[in-house]
Amino acid sequence: MNYAELTSLLGYILVLMVPYSLASMGIMVGGRVGVFNVSTEGVMLSGASAAFLVTYFSGSYTLGILSGIGVGLLIGLMMTFFANKLKIDQFIVGILLYIFATGFGSLLYKEIIGITLYPPRVNLLPRIKIPLLSQIPYLGPILFNQDAIVYITILIALLLYYLLFKTSFGLKIRSIGENPRAADALGINVFLMRHIFTLIGSALMGMAGAYLALGFTGIYTNTIVSGRGWISIAITIFGRWNPLWILVGALLFAGVEVLVYTLQAMEVSMPYQVLMMLPFIITLLILIYTSRKAEMPAALGKPYDRESIEE
Amino acid sequence: MTAVSKTTVKDYLKAAAYYLLAIAAAFGVAGLILLTMHQDVLLGYKTILTTSFSSLPNFALTIFKFTPIYLMGLGFSIPLASRKFNVGIEGQFLLGAVGAAAVGITLTGMPGYIILPLLLTVALIMGAIWATVPALLLYFFRVNEIISTILMNFISFYLVDLIALGPWRDVTAGYPMTIPISSSARLPIIGSQINIGSLFTIALAVLGFFILYRSTFGYELRASGSNPIAAFKFGIKTSYLAPLSLVLGGAVAGLAGGLEVSGLYFRLVEGMQSNYANLAIIVSLMARGNPVALLLTSFFFSMIEIGANAMQRTMGTPYEIALITESLMMLFVMTVDAIRQKRR
């Protein structure tokens, strides 16, 4: 493997880090206010479908990403209505919305594009070469020759970390996920915050899907997400619901995926199906590893009802 | 919800009316989607609701779909009693199919009365084994079963691909599938269309009902699901019940896979799981995990499936509209429940 091949391969780790970390941060943001949104996989598919279609017809990446976010908000609205307003079991709502969003994303594409022999294609997001820094040998082309969303994702992670862990507002938000009753007693608007952060979380998931279509594949297929949404839930748990650790976990899984592609390209004497199983097996192992010291928001998955007696 | 209040016929009728309203609302949304796609809405409704009964072959096809949806629904319902979500029925179904194909392909020249029970038992065991992994992860490490069972699904997809393109590959087919199973490993057909597999569902419905609602195990399972702390204090060993229910659910889903191989495809075919898992989850939730009510919801959804497939053929409407309508239906049913509970 020569220098150019190696740097482009390692550069892909950052590209793949984006959908994993955006989706995981979406799950984390909801979890911090006590809402465990497992519809991720479906929301990502819908986001990818909408973003691809809008960019394909308008030629604008900004509009594409925004429509991915928009679809995320739409499904987030349903999530927060059923789970926070009506207080229906979050897992049931999440699974049903996963099914709904999977159907929705696929329907959108089928209705507008139809079934074609060769799928229509958009160019991938343009890469931004940061002057000087991108000239650094090895590191430069890997770290400083990426598309805008890669940088934006890292900024979002830093921003969320600062907001949640370094400000008093963040402390209030996290207290909702730990003990909503106490937070309510302190005068924090628990219901409003749950609505807002569920929406933000779902929007991030939609953006993750949008990036898959615009920054990674350039086409839409029904298998574009292929389990990355579910793996993102594991990354969130691995990342202890902390944006910076989630970034690390996302990098790790992006690395595993790139490794699988590399081994495939090198034609190792292992059936490719076994290689494709690897990320999922590794995820299971990581879930075991993190289970011993899993730190989760204490009120995760529990609806908050002022009138109920039980905690 | 309390045991004291007696449900009268009037209450049942009231509940039925509310649920009909929820189902109608979901169909209403489907109609709106059809409108935006410039389709004939009334023709769409007619196709969805009547195709199953339009001819004997269509009805037989409905029953063919009903069997796996019902059994996978039961595979979801048993763990649901202990508040566990077995989203892994898809993989468990596929492993059952793998086991059935292995028996049917390798054991030739044996009479049907030996090979058929063997094939179905192997399918059952394979499904159970596939569910044992998440069950053990739950028991020893308290790993969330939704994530672990889904991950097992993805592993099973690649496993099926590996086998369908492996030594048993049918090289004459242009699609990943194995060679057919021996003729004695195939389920007999009764009447002209309907195979014995669908009779299994009725038997299992009764059995499932008795296990969940009339046995000590079922009682403990439901107690551990509805109030784990109280159940624990009453001496119920709650920690092993939930994992065990996952394994049982996996066995039933595996059996569904075996029946599909032995009664419909006669081989392992990639993608044979269709979207049964999603449907099974919804019908199980709609039946509140009750195996007898599940008969009704499964049949209703099989009907919608046949109708939606017919719509795709005759009207060119993407099949996905069924998936959207079905998930909304369940969300609306729960909305009705939530509103009724608030009023109480």
From TrEMBL, chain A:
One Gene Ontology cellular component annotation held by this UniProt entry: plasma membrane
Compartment(s) of residence: Cell membrane
Organism: Fervidicoccus fontis
The keyword Transmembrane is assigned to this record: yes
Protein name, entry field: ABC transporter permease
InterPro entries: ABC_transp_permease
Membrane-spanning segments: 6-23, 63-84, 91-109, 148-165, 186-213, 245-264, 270-289
Cited PANTHER family: ABC TRANSPORTER PERMEASE PROTEIN, SUGAR ABC TRANSPORTER INTEGRAL MEMBRANE PROTEIN-RELATED
Coiled-coil regions listed in the entry: none
Swiss-Prot/TrEMBL keywords: Cell membrane, Membrane, Transmembrane, Transmembrane helix
Membrane topology: Multi-pass membrane protein
GO molecular function, a single term: transmembrane transporter activity
Lineage, opening ranks: Archaea, Thermoproteota, Thermoprotei, Fervidicoccales, Fervidicoccaceae
Keyword set includes Transmembrane helix: yes
